[in-house]
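Lab manual, section 2.4: Encoding a predicted structure.

Procedure: take the sequence of the chain (98 residues), apply the prediction step described in section 2.3, and record the output as structure tokens. A sample record is shown.
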Amino acid sequence: MGDDELSMLRKKIDKTDEELMRLIKKRLATADKIAENKKKTGMPVLDRQREQEVLERIKAIAGEEGVDEDAAARIFREIITQTRNKQLKKPGIRETGK
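Recorded output:
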């Protein structure tokens, strides 16, 4: 592989990384709206059942796409954790039902 080809491939990775960041930003914005909805209805942020459903869906998609399912689940577990942490910084939002 020549330097030109390597440089081109690295630029593709950079572009993909930028796209991923835009999608994460979009996901966080949607999660903010969910947090506001939960605040209005008195629901807690933490919903282990929903988180498990998301992780199972992600693992299924990963399997279909030929991506390591456990690795995909770890990545999304971190995204979910960071999303929850961001939601909890909002006034009036509580983590659990207690």
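Check your result against the sample. The domain at 3-88 is CATH 1.20.59.10 (Chorismate Mutase Domain, subunit A).
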